[in-house]
Here is the input.
Amino acid sequence: MHIVESRWRLFGHILRRDIDILANKAMQAYFNQLSSRYRGRLTNTVTQPVIINKELSQACPHMKLKTSNDLQTMRLLAQDRNEWRTFTQKSRRQTADVSIQSSIS
Here is the structure.
């Protein structure tokens, strides 16, 4: 679970940073590319947003990370460190519960 926790901490750190840094520009370009109705296979596959979206949907089924609007919502959530910490702890517990249940089945 240390990897999941580290991934979410880094994601929150990047979201709180200035929008002009390279990591934020890359995330924005990735989500703009997804929402532009591109036909065919995407040429550049980034795995981190896919993994984060999967963990997010396991922890909070009502939330998703698929569009630039979803990214903006996450960015607003990350601005409050205490709220982000509570959110990531909940996500980590839910992800652990799902992985334990799937290993039992």
Residues 2-104 form one domain.
